[in-house]
Every structure is written in C-alpha cells, then in structure tokens.
Amino acid sequence: MSIKTDAGQPFNRLLLTGAAGGLGKVLRERLRPFTRILRLSDVAEMAPARDESEEVRPCDLADKQAVYDLVAGVDAIVHFGGVSVERSFEEILGANICGVFHIYEAARRHNVRRVVFASSNHVIGFHKQDQRLDAHSQRRPDGYYGLSKCYGEDMASFYFDRYGIETVSLRIGSSYSEPKNRRMMSTWLSFNDLTQLLERALYTPDVGHTVVYGVSDNRNVWWDNRYAAHLGFKPQDSSELYSQHIESQPMPAADDPSMIYQGGAFVSSGPFND
Ligand code: NAI
Ligand code: 15L
Q: What separation in Å is there between the alpha carbon of 173 and the centre of ligand 2?
C-alpha cells in the first residue's frame, strides 16, 4: 500500500503505546514511514527492537513517573495502550483513566504538541443501530470501558483548551483483518483505512480536538464524519467484500444486543464484583 506522507515530514521520534496489542503489532509496521524512530511501549512483552529505528520501552500506564520518563524526547504520541474490552471499574481505572491523565501530563511537561487517542465506538454504544450519529451526538457509553474513553476524550479537550496540545480522538469501530459478525459489517475499519486515518491524524494542521469515527466505507455505516471533514479521511475499503461469508453465519435472535445496540454485546457485560 502506498502511504501519502506529503502532508508532513516524518517525525523524529513517535511514541506508540499498546505496542504488544492486536492493533499495536499492526501499527508497529504501519507507522514506520511516519517517523525516524518509533518508540514502542506496553506493559506486556514486546518483540525486541529490530534495529536503531525502534526503541522498546516497557511501561505501566498506571505509573505516573514511568509514563513521564517514557514520553521524554518524543514529538507525538499514538496512545493505543490500555484495557480494550469491558472489565470491572477497578481494572479500567489504572490503565485507562489514570493512564490517559499520565499521558497528557507527560505531554504537557515535555512539550509534546500532538496526541492521537484510540477512543472507541463504546462511548456511544447504547445508541440503537437505527440511529445515525455524528461527533456532536450525545454520548451513551455502554460500560466502564466506554466511560473511560469518554474521560479520555474529555481529557483531550481540556488539554487543548488549557495547554494547546492537539488531539485527534479516533472512535474506532471494529478494526480487524476482516469483519467477524453482522454488527461488524457496519463497524469494520480495515487496517489500510486505520493507517490512512493515523496519517491524517498525525499530519493535518490545526486539529484542535477533533473526534472522528474510525470506520471503513461500509454499506450500512451508522456514523457521519462531517465534523472531521478537515482531516480529509477517505476510507477506501468496505466490509461488503465479506458479506457472503458473514451472511452464512447463524442469525442472532432479534432481541440479541448485537442486533439492537451500536455497542453490541458490550451493553450487557457486567455487573462485576457482586
Ligand atoms: P489490545 O487489548 O490487543 O491492546 C491493548 C494493549 O494495551 C495490550 O497490549 C495491553 O498489554 C496494553 N495495556 C493494558 N493495560 C496497560 C497498562 N496498564 N500499561 C501499559 N499497557 C497496557 O487492544 P487493541 O485491539 O489492539 O486496541 C488498541 C486500542 O484501540 C485500545 O485502546 C482499544 O481500546 C482501542 N480500540 C480498539 C478497537 C478494535 O477494534 N481493535 C476498537 C475501538 C477501540
Ligand atoms: C472496542 O472498543 C474493543 O477494543 C474491540 O475489542 C472491539 O470489541 C470493538 O470495540 C468493537 O466494538 O467491535
């Protein structure tokens, strides 16, 4: 795939958190054209640096001093680390809520001017699938995980208003090599489209705090990116390619959350710790 990088020069050093995760492993390859040095971080084990273009830095996002040290010397942050599914509040608290605060405080103190934040469709997960949403639609988080992403978006908004640190918050739908079920026919984001979105999020000037839905050009999309038009994100892929395979799957019951709510099964997770 050819990546359009004419909007800006490669960064000197880019930080990717969540580098051991599903998307982190994909982005470890895809972010290479955007930076001379890619600093990779996670609390989980990562593959060693392949050469001098990579720095591997284990770090727990819940540890404020460790995150401060991690961010030293980077030009921009792609923040994908954290708990990525619904869990108890206590599990979400350190990685996602304290973690996003630590990232922004470190960015402020090290004068980092741009963050790309992996938010999620689960900030609006309790909207029904027949509704069409944009970035100004009411948020309806579908759990503690979705709430933590709301908090992250608000943190981004505050750090722009107060300190001028710009963020693009990506409300990612479902980013996998291919859609896995009927709901993902609407929410799927291909890896190529994710890469284009990251390129736009890193290089577009004057983004302030922009919220953009991370979704491919699927036939039945629930989300309208009119308020992120300045990013120039034009998804190229569509879940339609997989429709035959998905339609061969058993049809869920009409009252199954995956057929009703945009957040699918997340809306019925929990309660925890009873
Ligand atoms: P993942 O769970 O595979 O990766 C997340 C990574 O964060 C893991 O490697 C984990 O070890 C790390 N992490 C967790 N707690 C940590 C801590 N305390 N300190 C440091 N690292 C920690 O998730 P995936 O799918 O790669 O998602 C990446 C990001 O994108 C996440 O923030 C997720 O919420 C977001 N996202 C992903 C979507 C998807 O379809 N894959 C959809 C919407 C949002
Ligand atoms: C997310 O936010 C999760 O990180 C991911 O695991 C998927 O479940 C995705 O949303 C989704 O809604 O499909």
A: 7
20 domain residue, yes or no: yes
- pTM tops 0.85: yes
Residue 71: burial class (beta carbons within 10 Å; 0-12, 13-18, 19+):
buried
**Measured distance CA(198)–CA(80) in Å, rounded:** 12
pLDDT the model gives residue 7: 52
Binding-site residues, ligand 2, Cβ < 6 A: 84-85, 120-122, 174, 187
In 3D, which of 114, 103, 32 has the Cα closest to residue 61? Answer: 103
Count of structural domains within the chain: 1
pLDDT digits (tens, 9 = 90+) for 53-74: 999 999 999 999 999 999 999 9
Residue 47's CATH number: 3.40.50.720
CA angle 35, 39, 45 (to 5 degrees): 140
Domain that holds residue 228: 11-268
Report strand pairing: 35-41 vs 11-17.
Answer: parallel
Eight-class DSSP state of 256: S
